[in-house]
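quick one: NDP bound model?
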Amino acid sequence: MSLEHIKVLIIGSGPAGYTAAIYASRAGLSPVLYEGTQPGGQLTTTTTVENFPGYPEGVDGNQMMADFRAQAVRLGADVRPGFITEADFSSRPFKLNVDREKDIEADAVIIATGASAKYLGLPSENAFKGMGVSACATCDGFFYRRKDVAVVGGGDTACEEALYLSTLCRQVYMIVRRNVLRASKAMQDRVASAPNIEILWECNTQEVLGDASGVTGVRLLRKDGTVFEKKVDGFFLAIGHHPNSDLFKQWVETDENGYIVTRDGSSRTSVPGVFAAGDVQDPVYRQAVNAAASGCRAALDAEKFLIENN
Ligand code: NDP
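yep, here:
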């Protein structure tokens, strides 16, 4: 197998990865970016992005990521298809493998592999993704103004999403599988005092209902065996995210939920020369604009590291 030497390797093609590529290219670091299995990342699963500054009319998520990519390529980034299948950060240069085919080594690595929202796994949920089924209220809630929506989950994210939606929507149903919320007391209190949030306790989703126009409702099964339906236009998942850090956990420090730990407000991980940006290290904000900003930090941190260590 051939061994290629790369100065700055960027893993992941969301806003964090592409922004890191833009900055690293302009710094003359000849970055190579591997796009992974979902080129463009989570934004390619949404419709219109209205909260990224600079697009007064909003922008299609796919188009926005195509623009990020084009900008990185124009500035000299080498953007490639491919998935990193192995990583060894035990010594520098770091050793990695692409698609179980190609060995590479890198002086610095920026991990920008993102996070994946968890879904229930229902065929009907999959069928209406982007047509009423969403895993991000901040991204898509605006499209459900004065409509009725459901949020699945009982953790802090679900409460936060339900509270956000309650300011826009007519009625918000929280679908909670147990008879308690997992969320913090403060969040529970805020949900309890929102007049238009109703919690449907001990309920599991049997099916997301819809037609050619998108989601029209949801069929639920309560623990006592009752099956009933609610009319909703939006169905939001908030049952947790999974940071895409599994391949790197052996080497870099992660928190109890698998998010890569970065140091002192920087992108530095526990391994000098390995940096993390975007949702893989951000359990809190999870917004494209934050991911882009952290990609910028990672490129600047990598540049500084290479100057100090080469
Ligand atoms: P959590 O894992 O805390 O909660 C997930 C929720 O989804 C739980 O209520 C769980 O139910 C439910 N759930 C999981 N799987 C299913 C399923 N298949 N069907 C139905 N319901 C399901 O995830 P969060 O994303 O809410 O939070 C992750 C971490 O981030 C937590 O530590 C949280 O405190 C933190 N966070 C903090 C915030 C803040 O402080 N402002 C905001 C957002 C998150 P069950 O309880 O029965 O397991």
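Residues 47 and 65 are 12 Å apart (CA to CA).
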